[in-house]
Amino acid sequence: MHFTAATLALAAFATSVSAHATMFGVSVNGVDQGDGRNVYIRSPPNNSPVKNLASPDLICGPNGGRAVGTFVKAAAGSKLTFEWYHDNRNDDIIDGSHKGPIITYIAPFTEGNGVGPIWSKIAEDGFSNGQWAVDKIRANNGKIDFTLPANIAAGKYLIRQEIIALHEGDTAFSQNAARGAQFYPSCVQFEVSGSGSVVPNQNFDINKGYTSQDPGIVFNIYQAVTSYPIPGPKIFSGSGASPAPAPVTTSAPASVRPTTTAAPVVPTTSSAVVVAPVPTPSSAAPVVVQPTTTAVVPPVPTTLATLVRPSAKPTRRPCPAFGKAKKREN
Ligand SMILES: [Cu+2]
Fold first, then answer.
1. In 73, 103, 109, 220, which residue has its Cα 20 to 30 A from 309's Cα atom?
2. Which residues of the chain have pLDDT under 70?
3. How far is the CA of 214 from the centre of ligand 1 (A)?
4. 95 C-alpha to center of ligand 1: Å?
C-alpha cells in the first residue's frame, strides 16, 4: 500500500485562487528553460505570501523541502532571467500596490527546505530613480535579470529569489498579524558548470537575519521615499559581481579572528564542493566569514536601524481583492 498519493493530495490542498505572484521559469543567457513550476522550481501551492519571519516557509515557500527532479544547467557567469507572474504567464505580474525590492540568494544544494545559515546574496534591487524593483518587473513582463557569479565553483545550488511587497509593511507582522511585509520566495535548483572555485559563504540565515527591527522589512512606502535599505547582507563580494571599492578603510591586522554572528558558523569545508580561498573582499561583505576580514563588522540587520522612520499616518491600502488569500497567509 502506498501513501504517496495521499501525501501529495494533502500537499496540493488549499490551492485557492488568490492573487499576488509566483515564479514561472528561468532563462539562461536568453534561452528559455521552459515552464519550471514543480520541474526545477520548488513551486509553492499557490501565490500567497509568507509573512512570519520565523517560518521555514519564508525560505523557499511551503514546498521548500520538496526537491524537484530537474536542475537548470548554467555556466558560471551566465546571465539569468527569472520570470514571475500573477495568475497566468504574461499577465499583470503582481499588483501595482505591492511595491518593494527583489533579492536573490544562493546556497549549496540541499534537499532540505533551506533553513539555516547557508545563504549568500548575489543580486538585489530596491528603490532607485523613483522606481521600486516591483515597478520594474511589472514593466518588464515579469522578468528580472542578474548574473550568476563568474567564479563560483561548479556544482549544484539552490537559488532563492524573493519579491518583498511592502504595501502593508509599515507595521511589523509580529505586532499585527493582519499587516506586515509580504514575502514571495521561490527556490530554483541549479547545476552550475565552470572552473571557478569560490563557494559562496556568507552563511546568512534568513529566518534569523530578517527581523522586525530591520528598516527594510518594516518600511512605510507611502512616505516620500528617497532611498530604501535592502534587507540582508551586502552582495557577496567573492562573487566577482563587482561591488565598487567600499569607502570603509579597515586597517585589518593579520589577526585571524572570524567574525561571530548570531548564527552558528558553518565551516566552508562542510560543503561538498571545492573550497578555495575566497579573493579577499575585505570591507565589502560584512557577513562573509573568513580569516582576513576585520573583526569589527557590525551585524547587518541593525546597521541601518535608525535611518528610516515610518511616518505616522500613511494612506493605507488593503491588499486588493485578497480577502480570501489572507486566511491562509502564514
Ligand atoms: Cu498581495
1. 103
2. 1-19, 239-330
3. 21
4. 7
